[in-house]
Here is the input.
Amino acid sequence: MKLSRFVVGILIALAFFNGASLAQTQPEKVVINAQLPGRPFPHFWEQTFGSGRAILTLRESYRNDLVEVKKVTEFSYVRFHNILHDEVGVYDEDEQGHPIYNFSYVDQIYDGLLKNGVRPFVEISFMPKKLALRQDVHPFWYKQIVSPPKDYKKWDDLIRALGQHLVDRYGLDEVAQWYFEVWNEPNIDFWTGDPKQETYFELYDHTALALKSVSQRLRVGGPATSSAHWVDAFIRHAVAQNVPTDFISSHGYADDTVQDLFGTSEDIPMDRRVCLAIKKVHDQIAASPRPGLPLMWTEWNVASFGPLQSRDTDYVGAALADDIRQCDGLVTMMSFWTFSDVFEENGPGREPFNGSFGLIALGGIKKPSYSQFALLHKLGHERILQDSSNILVTRRGDGSLAIAAWNLVDPDTKGDALRIEFEFQGVPRDSRVTVSRADSEHGNTLAAYKNMGAPRYPTEAQIQDLNRVAEKSSVQNLRLSKGSITLQLPVNGLLLLEVPKK
Here is the structure.
């Protein structure tokens, strides 16, 4: 009797574990109707990128990286700090204190961008030394001055002269397509006016009016704050003072704190923080006296997870895709910070894959995020809404479908592979399909770099080998079976499923 009970217990346990195992392997089912109407799906996540400061744009490495990113995205605008820093040489004064302007480096900076098909998203910063009220130096390696101007007439004249010079050089029709953003994150240590908000509003008013005196067609906006701050107050101020505002800008990162972004102690996962912050500001604009203002999210990135340096890893693609899904319809433009690791806020980079922001590491090595952006670039410009939280269904102009799927798992937790059964309606039941991947096995240049010994100074040959990993095609040519196909995604895997028009 005891033996029988033991055997029965074993059999019950085996049945339980087999059932659990079967449940775990059951694929998630997604039904896609290709005949459903769609809505516009502009690629708001890949049209603008941030970068290292203004003077870095003159480097060959910077321009090479810009060209490479533009090949695989809709890269149309770039935003960076420091166009007024003394290293650019814009402002000086003679012995009598009369202003001296020099736009020669400005011209080289903007000429280089435009030659490569990218327009400036001009961040008007920081303060020239001889125009500063105080020599308030920010702790970044390049020691920018973050003080208000000592003389607002001189500031107005400088901004007016800069705006007029740009119009004279590039033509009003061109410069009217740029954006001019006043300062950077004045709510924190990038601005030492006191009180911060009131003195920033004064700076904004002077700057906006000076630019508009050149032409009403020049587009100016702010408040360029960190962590979604000040927007409602900024709009109220602009309306009360009748100050021109063509767009709203703010910043927010996935690893900004909930308290900073929302003023609460809620438990909000990092993977949701960026788009919830964007929604917060979107709703503030909608409820304001200027509800039609475009929202430009001019700095953001996925969570870094500190020492895990997740921005160098395959995590970026799944996190990016999920942010695209969440933020769609809430924002005009999101400027990913940054497109390249030619970047020196903490000094010159020491080695590739050091956890920095960009898509391309030092030496021109294409990081996993480069391949992931390239994959998501292939999405269509019309979205068919779908309830799944890890799927984007889009339609291209030729009628074909492009579907992104991902398996997002935070790098500090463990996860499992994910199986998805795609069931299609409105396409031939044996339709050809193609599947492309970016994951731990596809486009993973970080793994390849580690496999070659993680050289601090990789040779040109090694860099070429790594970039072949990034560029190697992962395309599989498959067919639907009775209108369906089941695919597996590893942890933080991203795939693109393409279905031609019938």
